[in-house]
Structures are given as C-alpha cells and as structure tokens.
Structure prediction request, 120 residues.
Amino acid sequence: MLCERDTHMQVSVHQGPTIIGVATLEHLDPPMGVAFGPFTPSGQYDCDKHANTIEGDYVDDKGKLLSVFTEQYGLIETASIAIEDWADPSVGKHLTVWFKDGGDFAKLFSAHDDYKAYYP
Prediction:
C-alpha cells in the first residue's frame, strides 16, 4: 500500500508469525527491482538473529528467515531481504527488499515517482 502521495509503502517484517519490525519503503531502484527505506525494530528484533550487516560489517544472509507483508497486498514475494543495523541514530536501521523478476514490483510501485521516472 503506497501512502504519503503514493511515494512510500509501509511494510511489516516477520520471522515466521512474529513481527520483528516495520519499514517504510521510500526509495526504489526500478531496473534492479529493489525497494528500500528506514526500518523500525519491534521488541522481538535481535540484530544478531536478523541483521545481514551490523555496523557496516556483513554478517550473514539472514533474509532467508524473513518475510515482508503489506496491509493491502499481504505477503510480498521477494528474492531477498536484508536489514542493515547501525547504532548511530543518524544512520539508523534500513530494510532492503529485492523482488523476484516478474513478481510484485511493478504492481506495487508503478505509481511511485522513482518508477515513473525510469519507466515513463
């Protein structure tokens, strides 16, 4: 579901049935099928279990355990999910979602300014 004048999508990030946080997908890389934005962890989030990158160091591909949902569309089919975790509040935490080729990306983001700029 896009919001804020069709520029941002609110998603929840889950490990199984547990919500580990929410994110606002604000930015896109349309030819790569990637959406990303700030991530706000829930009390169930643990950077050691869920983050791919901690303080700039790649740890492991933790996205295999995660899924992303939207209120309007439900489960989003993804190719990969990554969380970057920085203690510095000016950098914060970020979620990146790679979409499967031919998947939900166009359906979800065709009204987004970044998408329209790349695919006029």
